[in-house]
Each structure stands twice: as C-alpha cells, then as structure tokens.
Amino acid sequence: MIKINFDNSQPIYAQIMDGVRKALVRGDLQPGDKLPSQRDLATSLKVNPNTIQRAYRDMELIGLVETLRGQGTFIKQEDEIVESVRTEMINTMVRGFILEMKSLGCDTATIVTTVAHQLDSDYSQNNITEVDPPVEGKGDGRWRS
Amino acid sequence: MEKLTYFVKADNLAKRFPGANALDGVSFQIGQGEILGLLGPNGSGKSTLLKCIAGLLKPDRGRLEVLGRFPNRETKSQIAYLPEIDYFYRWMKVGEVLKFVSAMYGDWQWDRAKELLGFMNLSEQQGISSLSKGMRARLRLVVAMARDAKLVLLDEPLSGLDPSSRGHIVDVILSEFKSSEQTMILSTHEIGETEALFDSVLFLEKGTVRLMDRADTLREQRNLSINDLFKEVYL
Q1: Domain limits of chain A?
Q2: Which of A3, A83, A130, B76 has the smallest CB count inside 10 Å?
Q3: What is the ipTM of this complex?
Q4: How close, in Å, is residue A17 to chain B by CA atoms?
Q5: Assigned architecture for domain A12-75
Q6: Distance CA B70, CA B91 (A)
Q7: Nearest to A43 among B175, B195, B224 (CB)
Q8: How confident is residue A145, by pLDDT bands cut at 50, 70 and 90?
C-alpha cells in the first residue's frame, strides 16, 4: 500500500510522508483508511522505527492523519483532503520546476511559452501521456498503464 | 528505576595502546530508544570504543557512563555485545552454544532464540566447525538479539558476509529492536545497506569524533546520503 523507492540523500521521514501523500492522491489510500502500525511499516520499509514515528507525528501536526488512542493512525476523514494534498503536491512540483528553469536563465514569458509549446506539440500529445514509468527491477521493458 | 536521559555518555574518553592512541578524547551521548551508527575507516577506534562501553576495556582517562554508571559487572549483565570475531568453541553444536550462553544471562529468551534460529536458517544440531563464515555471523546475532538487554552493541555485524546473510541480519535487527526500551550502537562499513536503521551517526577518525548528528538532519543539510557523506568526510 505504501511503497517507497528511497533516495538516501533526502531525509527518510520526509519521503515516508510523501509516500503517504502519493498513495492518497493515487487512490491507494482513502480518507478514513487505517495506516499500517509503525512497527509493521518499519519492518516492511526496513527503516528505523523512530523515523516512522517522526513521519506519523509530523503528518498529524499538518493535519493529514489522526491517531485514535488504542486504534491506530488514520487518514483524516475529510472530503477535501485528497484535493488539498493533490494541490499541494502540484504546487511544490511546479515551484521546483520554475526554480530550475530560472536557474537556466529563463524568464517568465519563456517558461510559459515553452510549457505551452510542449503541451501543444505532437510529441507530447502522443508520448507524454498518463503512464507510470516502468517498474524498476522487473525489467520486462513494458510500460504499466 | 528512574528514567535515564542518556544510556551512554562519554566525556573526553581516551585509550592508548602501545604505539597508537586508539581513542583520543571522544565525547558523545546517546539516549534511550536510539540506534547509533558508529562509522569510520579501519583503525579509527570503533571497536575500542565499543569494548570500553561493554566494560571489556578500561579507558585510560575521561568519563564514561553506561546505563547511568561506570561500566561494571551490573552494567555488563544488561549489555548484549556482539564482537567482530568468533568466540564459539569449535567442538560445540549450535544448540550447545545457546545453552552455554543462556546460562550466563538472566535476560535470555529461549522462545526468541529458537525463532531467530529458524529465521536465520540455522538448526541446533549443526556443529560450529561445519558452519560457514556467514552462518557463524548469523549465530552471533542470534546470541546478541535473544536477550532482553537494555543496550545492544554490534561490532561489524555485516562484515564479510554475502548479500543474503546481510539482508537477513538487517531484517532481524529491525524486527527485534525494541525502541521503547532498548538502545543500540552498530559499527559498520556497509553504510549503504544500514543507513536507514540509524537515528544518529557518529563518524570516528583517528580516535576522535569527526562528526555526529541525526542522520535525517545531515541528509537535509547536505543533500547527501550518509554513504556519500562518509566518502566525502574521509576523502
């Protein structure tokens, strides 16, 4: 349910939080769903249990999950939560993209026209569709849709 | 018992061997429930530091508090120490080793020992002399993790092992570590495979502390994995 391809150059707790966000946006997790116990997640992700604890605590602080005493940790049961997480992820990604573009010397007009051009071009229409990258390590060369 | 703030507290610890300062003013602290990665090149003092904490070596100077007191017989009984080298009698069988060790420690858990043995693909009937290096390393970990020790010290638990043994050992460390009551210090050269286990890392160099911080803090500050940071620090 929560699968993460860790990049050890980034804080692990933050990657766990992102993994939960992505699972929620993709629909692998729904509002009200129970998260695995911290111990189970530590074992399955092969990560220090204190790191999982920190990720859960931070997700609670930002209002993504809630912990019910004796029952476990749940994605908050709020209709708008999926949309707000999706918006937040998109904004973060676009901000990062804009920073990269600016570091290459692009001004606002260039960024906008380049994006528009890419979206319009045949190339993107045909090739940049909604496909996930191939599953790493499986290597059968086929694309998962 | 009152709750200890620090499970291990070292202050300006020094240990000299003929011709070399193994430890030359080491200070650090580690709290309850943490896993500390003890990292550094060969000869940086990792094993000496672990032996001092285990109470097997006496520091020449400096202060060392383990579980709230200077290492003595009582702290020893609460420490599980996995040495880098084999200490099993070659003529024993695996089951005999476990009986032998269980008699030495009041916190030995037979259920867990047997479960770990199965998980490690070892059996009580096997003779020590017939075990491969990797199987003996697995047995050392079974012995260290089958106790309810407050402090677990693992000296190079992955050294020289094949990938499947290394994977098994990392799995057992994670599944058996009780973060609510235990503390662990693990020395290793296999940083890539173990760095997700660490709360904090301590880089030793020539008997001194080169760098110590929380692993995620270092990743955040430097945009590097602990493995890459290691290469940078010791370049």
Answers
A1: 12-75, 81-127
A2: A130
A3: 0.85
A4: 13
A5: Orthogonal Bundle (1.10)
A6: 36
A7: B175
A8: very low
